[in-house]
Amino acid sequence: MSTATPARVRRTGRASVAYLTLWAFLLVNLVIVELMFAHPNTPAHNTLSSVGRFFGLHLGFVMALQLLLIARLPFLERRIGMDKLTSWHRWTGFTIFWLVVLHPTFVMLGYAQLDDLSFVAEIPNLAGQMPVLLGMIAAGLVAVMAATSVRVARRRLSYEAWHAIHLVVYAMVVLAVIHQVYEGSAFKSNAYTQAYWWALWAFAIGALLTGRLFVPLVRNARHRLRVAAVVPESDNVVSVHVTGRHLDKLRARAGQFFWWRFPGHNRWWQVNPWSLSAAPDGRSLRLTAKAIGTTSAGLRGLPVGTRVFAEGPYGALTAHGRTREGTVLIAGGIGITPIRALLEDEKLTGDIVVLYRARTAADAVLLDELRGLAQLRGARLHLLTGRTSKENQPFSTENLRGLVPDIADRDVYMCGPSPMADAVLRSLRALGVPARQRHIEAFRLAV
Question: GO molecular function, one example (predicted)?
Fold first, then answer.
């Protein structure tokens, strides 16, 4: 049976440090928020207003937390992974939605009771105050984002449209901060509460601006990325080769991805997350995309020499997180791109098994490259085809055990659609694969 080496134990410890730091941040800030609520400078007008204040305090903190989750902080992203951060971002977003519903509802109920008015009559009464009106507008923007994030609506929107709608999060934050500064009683209680909220918002907004604006601008100015070649892989799949200056300084790893823009060819707000489909060699980068949305379909028409603006590298689906000697690489559809790069990575040593799920062999992107790499690395490659049905469940517990009997003693890397990721995760848990050995990224990225 394989055992983890001390060096690899230290690597898994990097994730533990990130989790502990995040939990400590949550607990410390929640304690501060609870103390603010328990010891207000001015008492609430009535019980309903007090409940509204309670929800408002937590809403302010959760909004700041949401900014940190989308700031792409390297400390968290490299240790925890974009997939988990995106999942937390989603649930935090819905928490914000319900707090946005509850906070103004109870506040208006409290004021309606105080003014002896109906709930509906109190709405225009409060909306006449500018800070309150800004808070209402921010709440409306939150509702729009929540509505477009529901799975039914999400399936009907193109990725580009969904991403553009979610850019209103920045306007929402500005309005919410103004509302809190001028209207929030907890914010204005005393010098200590003001110092806390200003520090929290400065940290969250500063992290967002640094991770999403300043660092990408500096990196792209330094590396000057350009399209070097566009290679069709099939009727609906294309690879784009990118070159630039000092690419070895990017510290990109096989299994990671970038957010890609092509200024001049696409609009500035059209950005897509595509994985590296080849292990980075310090001289060039390669992305491979399937024509699903407007941007990915237009990659075939990219002229050589087109400027490239890339944010990254991101993702923890790398050999750096290994804990065991043996490895299983699982891919579904275009999710083969980071898996193919990992198979090429010399840092991924030991016995390797590749499970590639595709509808047919003709749909298996980069299959010839995979076969060549598998032969070179001495890896076993299994192409799992056919329509999923009761009779064909390639990632059921029984099938995974049959394909890889010692899977519980291996690291498992997986990239593919969310339903497939969920099926694989259920089977891995049933087979006793520990969480530290599961490295999964699904197609559910956030803004």
Answer: flavin adenine dinucleotide binding
